[in-house]
Predict the structure.
Amino acid sequence: MGVEIERKFLVTGGAWRTLGEPTLLRQGYLSLDPERTVRVRIEGSSGTLTIKGKNRGATRGEWEYPIPVQEAAELLDTLCHQPLVEKVRHRIVVGPHTWEVDEFLGANAGLVVAEIELRSEEDRFDRPEWIGLEVTDDKRYFNSNLIRHPYSTWKDPA
């Protein structure tokens, strides 16, 4: 079984903007069931299909498969829940880890979140100055929830 151990944080300030190469991501969900989400993503010129299990803390099962980008586009446009999640991702290396900073677009504009994947939930990591409040356990920040409850509709962000 594939396993993802990921922590998520809000991003503060703009120092991160000059770090990492920006890449546009478009993603949608074939299943929004919290027990098993099924995501389709186009990142640059690559397509992926990802199946994720239920979160247990910062850990969950994850299986990811490459698919042709044309098929990913068809799935996004015809079968995925709408609206899609669109964001610009910056991958920023800090020590032995890579932070993924996502600046959301569209109905989620204004939201900037950083994620870090770890080897274990106890894994130590360097925390850059632009990392703010941890939101790992706040379901509002799950990408699959941002489709049903976009950031622009929140009464009390963070």
Residues 36 and 151 are 22 Å apart (CA to CA). The mean pLDDT is 93. The longest strand covers residues 22-33. The beta strands are 3-11, 22-33, 36-43, 46-53, 59-67, 85-94, 97-104, 112-117, 131-134.
